[in-house]
Amino acid sequence: MRVLGVDPGLTRCGLGVVDGGMGRPLRMVAVGVVRTPASDGIGERLLALQVELERWVEEYSPDAIAVERVFARGDVSTIMGTAQASAIPMLAAARRGLPLAMHTPSEVKAAVTGNGRADKAQVTSMITRILKLTEAPRPADAADALALAVCHVWRGGARSRIEEAVAVAARRQGVGGRR
Amino acid sequence: MRVLGVDPGLTRCGLGVVDGGMGRPLRMVAVGVVRTPASDGIGERLLALQVELERWVEEYSPDAIAVERVFARGDVSTIMGTAQASAIPMLAAARRGLPLAMHTPSEVKAAVTGNGRADKAQVTSMITRILKLTEAPRPADAADALALAVCHVWRGGARSRIEEAVAVAARRQGVGGRR
């Protein structure tokens, strides 16, 4: 199972690709960060992010995409841009019919360090050990993207199957809006 | 000048196309609403919205796209979806090099009714009169999308030119992030 983890953002969007499976060793395939200049318009920034993300998806052919769940809290001025940036990996997954998973920051921290309140340095340190990297991934957004992918390998598979079953059941019962 | 106004949302996304110009009569070209079922995944909903919005842009060839500016306030559970939905018209504009404008709800209300705190009924009533429609556009999201387009025709042209000049100046001075 190959997972592309995405830590969404307009200024910096972390991307990390990890191979692994339940009870199998994990391997880092790729890691990086996409930056878009704050002086560009929001549309141009989203498009630049999409072009780069699509390139990653084409090159690494992930089996699933895991995105950090964005909350409406923290710095209000950046949260809208982060939410808009998170639409890009969601579209990429939907267009290809790939499973899309969302994990909260505390789920990712708990999966990787055992502590849902771990700080960025702890996450970077643990992800470096878990993936047996010779140096720590930088910036923190890149390490976070790898942590998301690892979290998804470890807990995502089972969870997506449950979520899919719930979604199918909800559709059968006609829950939610209709076109 | 033809403007596509978009009132972003996942449950209902209002779309309105208006022809007009400074000191020229306004004409409604099209109005509608895109709905995506709440039982679908977020990726599928964004993709369905994108498919429909792209169809509108292809069919009506707007000269500019005006999107309601989303704020991180109000109902936190829907605000993230609204922000993600707003990425779709932003991408559509950027992909075609079309000017993208964002107007706040109070700017739109002030432009259309003269009162930045007008309620939905007042906006719908005024937009029906301004565009000389035989019946009021429904739902409110459709009327809001037309109001956005009208607002942009009336005040958007001049403003986008100023914003563009500011953006160009900022780029020359190296303000903001770098790739």
Automatic annotation (TrEMBL), chains A, B:
Active site: D7, E68, D141
UniProt entry keywords in alphabetical sequence: Cytoplasm, DNA damage, DNA recombination, DNA repair, DNA-binding, Endonuclease, Hydrolase, Magnesium, Metal-binding, Nuclease
EC number: 3.1.21.10
Cofactor(s), names only, from the UniProt record: Mg(2+)
Superkingdom to which the source organism belongs: Bacteria
Pfam families: RuvC
Catalytic activity: Endonucleolytic cleavage at a junction such as a reciprocal single-stranded crossover between two homologous DNA duplexes (Holliday junction)
SUPFAM superfamilies: Ribonuclease H-like (SSF53098)
InterPro entries the record matches: RNaseH-like_sf, RNaseH_sf, X-over_junc_endoDNase_Mg_BS, X-over_junc_endoDNase_RuvC
Positions that bind Mg(2+) 2: E68
Cellular localisation: Cytoplasm
Cofactor note: Binds 2 Mg(2+) ion per subunit.
Residue sites binding Mg(2+) 1 per the record: D7, D141
Spans through the membrane: none
Function: The RuvA-RuvB-RuvC complex processes Holliday junction (HJ) DNA during genetic recombination and DNA repair. Endonuclease that resolves HJ intermediates. Cleaves cruciform DNA by making single-stranded nicks across the HJ at symmetrical positions within the homologous arms, yielding a 5'-phosphate and a 3'-hydroxyl group; requires a central core of homology in the junction. The consensus cleavage sequence is 5'-(A/T)TT(C/G)-3'. Cleavage occurs on the 3'-side of the TT dinucleotide at the point of strand exchange.
Family: Belongs to the RuvC family.
Subunit structure: Homodimer which binds Holliday junction (HJ) DNA. The HJ becomes 2-fold symmetrical on binding to RuvC with unstacked arms; it has a different conformation from HJ DNA in complex with RuvA. In the full resolvosome a probable DNA-RuvA(4)-RuvB(12)-RuvC(2) complex forms which resolves the HJ.
Protein name: Crossover junction endodeoxyribonuclease RuvC
Species for this entry: Mobilicoccus caccae
